[in-house]
Amino acid sequence: MKHYLQFKDCTADEYGYLLGRAAFIKKKFKAYEKHHTLADRTLAMIFEKASTRTRVSFEAGMYQLGGSVVHLTTGDSQLGRAEPIEDSAKVISRMTDLVMIRTYEQTKIERFAAHSRVPVINGLTNEFHPCQILADLFTLVEHRPAASGAPLDAIQGKVVAWVGDGNNMANTWLQAAELLGFTVHISTPRGYEVSASTAGISSTSCYKVFDNPLDACRGAHLVTTDVWTSMGYEAENEVRRTAFADWCVNTEMMAVAQPDALFMHCLPAHRGEEVTAEVIDGPQSVVWDEAENRMHAQKALMEYLLLGQLA
Ligand code: CP
Ligand code: NVA
After folding, report:
1. Which residue of 26, 133, 219, 276 has the smallest Cβ count within 10 Å?
2. Which of the four CATH numbers 2.40.440.10, 3.40.190.10, 3.30.420.40, 3.40.50.1370 does domain 7-128+292-306 have?
3. Is 143 marked active-site?
4. CATH code assigned to 132-290
5. Is the minimum distance from the CB of 226 to ligand 2 under 6 angstroms?
6. What is the mean pLDDT of residues 54-58?
7. What is the value of pTM for the model shown?
8. CA of 110 to the centre of ligand 2 (A)
9. Is 294 a catalytic residue?
10. From ligand 1's centre to the CA of 136, what distance in Å?
11. CATH 3.40.50.1370 placement within the chain
């Protein structure tokens, strides 16, 4: 049994398969062709934080695969009344085939997984957001395919500029860079840096740090950012607004990136904070495809965790 708790829980070969499979699944979806590989399977979704994209993409995706979903939140389950996570894992995993969890500490999802009879997927923790990076890479491959047609060839050697918080998204980009062979140019305000140990990477060679966000964007194939204040850190909102004021992706930053550079944002976005409206609503932005691709990529992931590689 395989869990997907961090990006590095899959190998490069598995990502090669998943990205190809996501494209196949998306094509069938667009052609209104049935694809019921998970008929009679049930996904439990546990949300301890808010969500729009993750909820809709997993729920719609599972129905499209012929399965069904159970949606739980801290407020409407015993999870919010201090039932031990281990007990919840034992019970929920006896009744469902797959579990997706969005929560706070990574250790919480790890404890759940350790007591689960079924695969567990990380739908965002304080430390990581692997499903989002899977979708982002799928979007990159889709928009900038390699001549060979191989998904991993479209990713290898690329430069991704990360402008903003050294958060769950930044950590996951670093894991992806180390595993798939690209470089992250990272610029965060002082005090919000990434660290190799928190990111769970073995060396610092997959990323370069820049004090000035403009320098991080120079020559990048993809420029990406995220909110200044992630869920769970709301108490720091005011301090962060001051600290992050210069970490706003604007047209000047996009102008020093590659001429055909893409802009991505996991969303939700705050125009005028981490990105200008001109950039996120501009021609280089692929944020709507990126959001939609959560569903196609996660359908490939759910199918893979339950059935392994198919044709
Ligand atoms: N990007 C993302 O995970 O969005 P939601 O918080 O809406 O799920
Ligand atoms: N870093 C953000 C991502 C939201 C999808 C957060 O954790 O709130």
Report:
1. 219
2. 3.40.50.1370
3. no
4. 3.40.50.1370
5. yes
6. 98
7. 0.98
8. 19
9. yes
10. 13
11. 7-128+292-306, 132-290
